[in-house]
Structure formats: structure tokens, C-alpha cells
Amino acid sequence: MLLELQEISLSYGRIQALHEISLTVDQGEIVALIGANGAGKSTTMRAVSGLRPVSHGKIIFDGQDITKLRADLRVVRGVSQSPEGRGIFPGMTVRDNLEMGAYTRRNRVEINKDLDRAFSLFPRLKERERQMGGTMSGGEQQMLAVGRALMSRPKLLLLDEPSMGLAPMLIQQIFDIIVEINQQGTTILLVEQNAQQALSRAHRAYVLETGRIVKSGTGSELLSDPSVKDAYLGVA
Amino acid sequence: MSSTAATPGKNGRRLNGNLRGWFARQPVWVRIVGVLAVIALAYLLPYTAEIPLIGPQIVTEGIDWPSALFNMSYYVLLALGLNVVVGYAGLLDLGYVGFFAVGAYTVALLTSPDSRLGTEWPWLAAVPFAIAVAMISGLILGWPTLRLRGDYLAIVTLGFAEIIRIVAQSTETLRGDRGFTDIPHPPGQQTDGSALFGVRDATPYYWLGLTVIILVVLGVRNLDRSRVGRSWLAIREDEEAAEIMGVRTIKYKLWAFAIGACIGGLGGVMFAGQQGFMNSGTFVLQFSILVLAGVVMGGSGNIPGAILGGALISYIPDRLRGIQDPIFHTDLFGFRFAIFGAVIILIMIFRPQGLIPSRRRAMELKDREKEAAPS
């Protein structure tokens, strides 16, 4: 087991956003978290990456308790997040954004290898190497955010809404790449509104509703689950 | 590496950008000679009045020109320091004058015969202490407050500057309005045996200030290009993103604050050494706002911008001194804030990123706009 959340709760002020969430992610898996707006998907991600402290429960990563570990040290341990929406550095070039992803690393040769890998996954980024991040389209920024998250060579990649605001064709493309990254050996925890895509690509998935996990199963199980279909897949 | 690829379609839009781009493409020796020439000219500034025709238009009338230059030099120093905090790390500090005051008061306490400490050190001996105390005060203020963001940080720093001023105003040790007299000048003698840093001619002070500025610029530039600078940049552009890249944000923000405080303290040290007298009235809030206006006006986040902005906030009011307006026949100096405000408004309308804008900054501003009003 690479990641285990043990009954974590998290509050924003007096509003409790997560209620005793437990989930596991095994080595080599793609696990999806689906749910409506405000269900707590992004909050769960932020708890794992360390951007928000949890009020109860434990986060176990790679056999160690990281509940109280600072966010920057979690990156060193192997957790990397591609944040929701505009999480790139607008005034840095594409290249510098990617270099920022390798902030915790020193080995130049290895970093260059991973740069090449990011460029081969996203040839578009290579074309735009010297362009400022902020001048790129939404889809390109999304690719950049994913590519940048890979630059720390994570054991666990957290992807927060990788398809947000993308055209349907690009959504296909970015999910193809996510599967490819996974096949190259990176474990992925994925948050998505696009439940159809997420469930058909993920090994397992959890359904979140108002800060609680209400269902879990393999991707295909949930795809054919009537209540999931009803609520998240937009088919009767 | 072609620099044209970086800004497709944007070349030639600004003369300024072109000049900088052109300069960056020159061989190293040309750039070094260029920079040395600018530095040499800066050292010659006290003799501006000798230039036929234009010279007399530039120099100030109501205040002697070397003194005006010295004033500019410590404002530039403050702008450079505040630029580290606001421009590099993106922390809105409205109480920067507080560090200036800490530097100046430390010098006064250690050197002035009015001080209770009774140490009466020479100016030079007090310098390292004053810088250290300013830096420590930066750390003390920063440690609890840098967890705050944006507006909250601005309010807390504002409070800090006021606390310093009010403490200075009302404690016996800091002597309030009476202030400290006879703060010694920097050491050194002229060939005829008279003091190099006297009261009659401010030129040596200006040269000293300029030298300190050059050293500070070198230090800040090196920091900016190091890992520290990269961390600041990331924090300024997106603090959360920086954190999940592995940047220990609180540490680098504290660094920025401490370095900014250090430079601000240094400004205070210079000021105390030249004036010889200071009291609590010197350190009003206006001062912080003025320096911040200078940084923003010059172009936040880049060194030439901070230098230009810092120089202008001091030069404009000094230049207005001693000029009578044609209607009321009063000194234009009295209208300095009105004129100054108008100038700032004009600059903000026509060059919102400052006189010498940083391209990065322009991108960040655009990005924030999108965030504020997503399409």
C-alpha cells in the first residue's frame, strides 16, 4: 500500500469539509475520486499534499506517518501535486516551470532525463519551451502543470481536475497521457468531475458526497452502478 | 539561445524593452564597459551644474545639489530594500520605515552624547550593530506575521511602523521630539586635515551612499539569481504552487524580510550619520508609503526600476523647493504631494507596470486579472 488515509477529518474554520475519510492507493494503481462540486475532492488532495492540516486521522505514505509533515518535505518523500486550475507560474517560461518541478532535486543528469521525458509526453511543451506560462492556452497550462508535477519524479502523483476547462478532444488526449504515465510506473490519485473518463481509466474509484465517502469499487463496477450513473454520468 | 523567441510579436513595441534587449545581446566586455560608464557618471553627478545649458535645469534650487543627491541615495537604498520584500517575494510591507527607524535609532543610541547608554561610539563602530538589530527586528516581526497573507500582512506591518514611532515618541530612552543631537559623522580626513564628512559639503556623503548602493545592488542581484531568488519568484507568483514544488515558503519569506530590514536599517544608518540629529518626527508613516510608491512607480521586481523610483521620490520634491508658483507666489514645495500624486497617477495610467517594467510582473498581473474575472 503506497497511500492510506485513516479516517481523516478537516475543517475550514467552523465548516467541516471532510468527515473521517478512509481510502487506500496501492502501488501502481490509478485511483479516482469523483463527486460533485464542493464534495471535498480537492480538499482531500490538499490534505495529502500537506497544503491543509487535518484535524483528525492519519495519513500513511510509503509505510510512514506523514500526517504532521510539512508540505515541502512531502515532495522530497515522493508526493507531487498538479493543482487545480491555474496552478502554473505565469511569469516563468515553460522550461523554468518544469525546472521548478525539480526544485528538490540536485542531479542535473537525471533532471535533464526527466525534462526530455516531459517533452516527449507533451511535445507541445517543447514547442513552447521559451514562452511564458501565462501566455499559454488553458489546455497547454494543464499539460504544463502535469509535466511539472512529474519533474520531482514522484512515487505518487496527485492530479486535481486535469480535464477542467478542456475541449473534448483534449480531454481524451490528457487521459491517454495519464494512463501512459501510470504505465511507466507512477501511482496516480486523480480527482475528476468528468466521471465517465475517470472511471473508465481508473483501476478503482471512490465517490465523495459532502465530505464523506459513500461508495467505492473498481472503475467498471462504478460505471455500471445505477446510482452513480444517475448522479454523475448524466445518463438515465 | 535567441531572445526573440521569448516574446513573439512583442518586439519593437517599447523603446525601453528594445534598449534592454539590445544591451543583453552585447558581448560581455561591452556590457561591463557600459555598466562602468554608468557608475562613473553616477559618481560625477555632484558636478551636474557645470554642464552648459541643461545642467542648471537639473540641479535643485532650494536645497544644495549634493544634499539632494544624498537624499536620493538613501531613498534609493530604501527602495532597493523594499523591492526585495515587495518586488521579489511579493510581500506587501507598509511599515518599511520601521526598519529605517530601527537602524537610525540604534546608531543614535550607541553614538550620541544624549544617549542614556553613554557609549558615544564612533559612527563606524555602530554600523554593524545597527544593521544586525534591524535584521533581528525583521525576523521578530516576520516570524509570527509571515503566515498571514496579502492584506493582513500589510495591516500588521503598518502597525509595526506605528509602534516603533510611538515608542520612540513616548519613551525617555528614545527621547521623543527632543531627539538625539551630535550623532557623529563617518570617519575620514581631507588632505588639509579637515573632516571628510563635514556639514558644509554633502558630496562625500553622496559618494558614500552611492558606494553602499553599488554593494547592495551586487548582493541583491546575486541573491536574485540564486536558488533563493528562484524561491522568491515562485512564492510571489503562486505561493501554494511553490509549496507543492517543495519550497519551504516561510523560510524564504523570512529571508526576504530580514534582508529587506537589513537594507532599510542601512538606510537609517546613513541618514543618522549625515543629519547628525534625528527625532521621532522623522519616521512618519508617509515615509513608508512614499518608498512603496517609488518601488511601484519605478517598476516592481527589478533593480533599475527600484533605483529610478527611489531617486524620483526624493528628486521631485527637492526640485520643487525654492520655486515660486505664478499664482499664489508660494513655494512649490508646499504642493509637492499634490504634484507628486498627479505624477504617480499619470504613470499608473500610461505605464501600469512602472517606468522600467519587468516582463514577468506584467504576466503575473494579467494572470491575476483572469483569476479575478474568469472568462
Describe the structure.
The complex is a heterodimer of chains A (236) and B (375). Chain A has 10 helices and 10 strands. Chain A is α/β, with parallel strands linked by helices. Chain A has 2 domains: 1-78 and 154-236, P-loop containing nucleotide triphosphate hydrolases (Rossmann fold); 86-153, no CATH class. With 375 residues, chain B is mainly α. Chain B is built from 15 helices and no strands. The two termini of chain B are 35 Å apart. The model of chain B is unreliable at 1-16 (pLDDT under 50). Classes of the chains: A alpha/beta (236), B mainly alpha (375). The interface between A and B is medium-sized, with 32 and 29 residues. Chain B: The chain crosses the membrane at residues 28-47, 68-88, 94-111, 123-146, 152-168, 205-223, 254-272, 284-313, 333-351. Chain B: InterPro entries: ABC_transp_permease, LivM-like. Chain B: Keywords: Cell membrane, Membrane, Transmembrane, Transmembrane helix.
SSE topology sketch:
The complex is a heterodimer of chains A (236) and B (375).
Chain A: E1 3-12, E2 15-25, E3 30-35, H1 41-49, E4 56-61, E5 64-65, H2 71-77, E6 79-82, H3 94-101, H4 108-121, H5 123-127, H6 138-150, E7 156-160, H7 168-183, E8 187-192, H8 195-201, E9 204-209, E10 212-218, H9 219-224, H10 226-233
Parallel strand pairs in A: 3-8, 3-9, 6-7, 7-8
Antiparallel strand pairs in A: 1-2, 1-4, 4-5, 9-10
Chain B: H1 15-25, H2 28-44, H3 54-58, H4 65-88, H5 97-111, H6 123-145, H7 150-170, H8 203-224, H9 227-237, H10 239-245, H11 249-275, H12 285-298, H13 303-320, H14 336-350, H15 359-372
Helix pairs in contact in B: 4-8, 4-11, 4-12, 4-13, 5-6, 5-7, 5-11, 6-11, 9-10, 9-11, 12-13
